[in-house]
Design goal:
Blueprint lengths: L1 H6 L4 E3 L4 H7 L6 E2 L6 H7 L4 E2 L5 E3 L3 E4 L2 H16 L1 H11 L27 H9 L7 H8 L3 H12 L3 H19 L4 H7 L5 H12 L3 H8 L4
Amino acid sequence: MLLSAHKRGARILTICSGVYVLAASGLLTGKRATTHWKYTDHVKTAYPDIQVVPDVLYVDEGQILTSAGSAAGIDLCLHLIRRDFGPVAANKVARRLVVPPHRDGGQAQFIERSVPTDYESGRLGPLLDHMRENLHQEHRIPDLARRAGMSERTFLRRFSEATGMTPAKWLLHVRLCEARDHLETSDVSIERIAEHTGFGTPTNLRHHFREQMGTTPTAYRQTFSRAS
């Protein structure tokens, strides 16, 4: 039914765990999607061909749209009304619902960073702390393996077992979290944030931020800055 509806040009939207229905249908293969933060890791594992975008309210892929929790589903519906009928209509609906008129899809789901697991205090703990504290530096696999006292092969295996990611993906995740924190809590320039978090240039930061968060650093700051 979903496949035939999609072929007819129907627009399909999911809220929260509804993403599993679309994922099972194959309509999300090769596409970006999101869901409630509780399910993102499982969706990544169960459907590796889907580019899961964590920590955002919704993802718009044209005719297929996905959202996080129930409240984010309202945001996505308002986004569609705004897209189809304009901001005036969307604002009227938002007032009727007594909700904010516009929350950008790239807004975080307001979850804290994952709770440290056993590996944090294990053999890789000091190394992970070192990497977090020196995001501005380049971290090469040979250097990291040597610091951990392992062969490169063993290090890569242990790192993947502990974090569920490669060192490069883990670093990107932590750098984006740090950049997001700066955007929310400080008025430091994008250039300084890019340098401090290891992205090097504003262009590089913008590229990765948009790819993962679905919005630009500047737009994110304008919406979520808590700096006085």
